Amino acid sequence: MSLVKSDYEEVTISTKPIFNGKVISLQVDEVQLPNGQTATRELVKHPGAVAVIALVDDRMIFVDQFRKPLERMQVEIPAGKLDSGEEPLEAARRELEEETGYACESLSHVCSFYTSPGFADEILHIYVAEGLKQVGELKLDEDEFLDCLLLTFEDAQRLIQEQRISDSKTIFAVYAWQIYRLTGKWS
C-alpha cells in the first residue's frame, strides 16, 4: 500500500461554485478519471472542526442539543468549527469554555480524521482536556441552545444503545474513554 500519488487520481477539469454559506460551501467539480472518462463530483467544503474529551472526576462532559438534520436531540461531546485562521488547539479551548463553562490547564491532541471523505473535506481534530475547572456560565452563539451534561461511562454506553449518542466523534470519545479506563492512556 502506497501513500504517494496514485494511478487512480482524478484531475479537476472545472469547478462550479453552487452555494457559499456560514458553515459550508458547495461546489460541483468535473473531473477526468484515470481511464480518460469524465465524471461529476459534488463537494462540501468545510473549514474544519474540533471536539473535546473532558472528564470531571469520573464523568465525561457532554452537550445535549437539537440537530436539525436529524430532527431530534443529540448528546455529543463539546465541539465546533474553526474560525477563519484559528488554530485547532485554540478552537478546542474556546469551544470547551463556551459550551460547558469549563476551562482546562492543558489539551492533548488525540487524533484528527476526515468525517465524510466521499463528499466533504471537513477534518475534525479531537483533544483531551485535563485540569478542568468551572469558570462560569455557558457562552453560546445567539443561535445555539444546549444543555451541558456530566455522564458516567455507563450512562454514555446506554445512550449509545438508545441512539441518543449516534455521531462518530462522540462514539469515538466513549470508546477512547473505555481504553483510558483500562490502560490509563487515551491512545
UniProtKB/TrEMBL annotation:
PANTHER family: NUDIX HYDROLASE DOMAIN-CONTAINING PROTEIN, UDP/ADP-SUGAR PYROPHOSPHATASE. It holds the Pfam family NUDIX. Keywords: Hydrolase. This is NUDIX hydrolase. One of its GO terms (molecular function) is hydrolase activity. SUPFAM superfamilies: Nudix. InterPro entries: NUDIX_hydrolase-like_dom_sf, NUDIX_hydrolase_CS, NUDIX_hydrolase_dom. It comes from Paenibacillus albiflavus. One of its GO terms (biological process) is nucleoside phosphate metabolic process.
